[in-house]
Protein 1
Amino acid sequence: MAVYATIADLQARHRDQLTLVAADEETGLRDDVRIDAGLVDASTEIRAILAARYSSSDLASLDEDSLAVLRVYCMDIAFYRIALAFSRSSDAIKERYDVAIKRLEAIASGKGALTTTGGGAAGGSAAGDVGQNEVIVEAPERMFTRERLGRI
């Protein structure tokens, strides 16, 4: 099971806050084990939300742009979970979590999309020239046409 963000990503985005929020109660040092657990939980939550629209294989073949979007959401969700684990949550952390969840739910409901390395939208057709919201209909040739029936 892949995670969408790493401790290094969190460190780069929340450099000062991460150490304050994730400091062990006894030693005062950053607890990377609980941070990793928060990242795994956040990635699991993301997959659970996106499962409404995307299969596991779709999520495994996301392109770099889509992975970058999920990385941002994963960091916000993980940071909230980490803050809760250490009883150091704040309104700003909760607000970022809520926004990330709402955006993921919007993607899952079709108000946004993630793209795969194959060039098409995840969950879509394999044809490269078909957009994610286009309908493809395959049907046999019409039997009754004006030419075949003659002019009446």
Protein 2
Amino acid sequence: MDSFAANQKKSFHIRSNSLPSKPHPVVDEVDEHLCRLKASEATSSSSSLCQKLDALQDLHDCIDKLLILPLTQQALVDNKSVDDLLEGSLKLLDLCAMAKDALMQTKESTHELESTLRRRRGDDIVGDVQKYLNSRKMIKKAIHKALKGMERLSFQKSDESSEIVSLLKEAEAITCNSLESLLSFVAGPKVPSKMSRWSLVSKLVQAKKVATKDEDSNGNEVQMVDAALYSITRKSDSLVQVEDLQNMLRNFESSIHDLEEDLERLFRRLIKNRVSFLNTLNH
């Protein structure tokens, strides 16, 4: 009788271990945010980048809740990926800081040019425009150099990693790639030494949509403003009025300001996550 009871208990124990455990609600929530971010379209305008940054903020809010769970602490104990995750969190903070600096410099130079144009109505503005373009060139060069030397992260789930670690790695890769997209947006495309007239016409037609605050326009504002400014420097080939340029610069400055605010909020969340991560490891 005792032998039968023991065998029955052993059999039940084996069956219970084979049953799938229900994921914690926070784990499901993080996974849902990751799925939405993966499904989102490529960012090509400041508005879409703001939406992406907002989504990243929501993701990292959930990750902060995930990091304080006991199951996360257990998953991270003696895990070989912990050092990689710590290094990855620093990389995200560095990328955020770089993007914040690029946005600040771009906004300042844009504001300075817009103010100059407002004061110097009717005067020759080519020199001021060229000064702005030189400043933008330095920003572009610094960003392209940084991105070139940076290995783009991609996530591949490993059988050796726990679900928690896999989620954290995937979140890191998506955040890193999104920040690199933001930097690429700020840098804009490399402008050729000689731009054809028809190339400028095409870009400036789109630029006027920004100047008239066309909310349905998803064009790259950096490319549009750069095209308009390069047109100004070609005195005999100028395709944009100063008033239109002022409107574009004001709208562009406003867009950069919105990106700055969203990026600052994300930066604070990433710092909070790193602190939570370190606290989890020290428990």
Protein 3
Amino acid sequence: MAARVLLRRRAAAPFMAATLVGGALIPSVALAEAPEDLSKKPIYDDFETPLPTATGPTPSPFSDTIPQTSTPPPSSSPYPPASDSKPRAPTPTDRLAVQIGRARLFLYQHATRAEDAVNAGMDRAFDLEQSFTSTVASLAPPRESGEKLMPGLVYVLVAGMAGSIVGRNRNILLRASLPLALGVGAGWLAIPVTMGNVAGLLWKYEQRFPAVADAHLRTRDGIARTWEMARVHSHLSRQYVDDKVTGARDAVEGWVKKGK
């Protein structure tokens, strides 16, 4: 029995040797890494890797041919496809960017307001300057009037100084009103056109205050009535004097005629 077993082993030894030699001479396909199992989940990824879908059978790692798989057509949308990942929390860089944006908007608003305030102030200053220059230009007499300001203003100044000298030893009312009255009177006599322009400008400013305008009107009417009454009384007085002088002369002439 043992002899039969030994004979079988000796008979099978040449075939086993041939098989080993054939395997060494004709190597089979060996892979450096094992084929990836797509059903397992990677331990270093936070999201699930979608399993590829293929229309054909799964290719064998030992085959040289790869079956053709159908790929989805590219999307025409300009936006990337929405992912199923969870929204991440804002980082410190994002919060810092938001704060910097708010600070820039705050500074921009205040800078814009300051610029608008400066522009409004400059506009008011330019308007005031233009109004002042136009007002001064409107007070000058026209060329066709033939009125000159220089000698007329000198006369007004001399009249005001004379009034202050005359009312120096008088009460405070005369010291305040006499130079003004003499200066205004000299102005109406020397530069009547300019004084008329000044009076019109003062009346425009007085119209902004109704109480002042009414007081001015009443004062002017009272002065006008007083002047008219003075003229009437002066005319009557002159006529009365003329009548008395004429009567006295006639009486003297009659006495002279009788004496002859």
Protein 4
Amino acid sequence: MAKQKESSSRIKNEAQYEALRDKGYSKEKAARIANTENSGVKGGKASPYEERTKKELYQQAQDIGIDGRSKMSKNELIHALRNN
């Protein structure tokens, strides 16, 4: 039990992590998403992907660990972010 608390203490947004796990996300992927800078931000506060620069999209993809991002176009980054 102590091991579980230790690993969960590294999660920035525990509620989001648990919700993602309940949806079937792997522990690694749920942790990656729950530990992003804006984890848990809701209500359209983030700008739509189409309004962001390729550099901003690349950074977001890097933050959540999308593989192959360096070779992706802006549209491919948008698709990868929406489907990750």
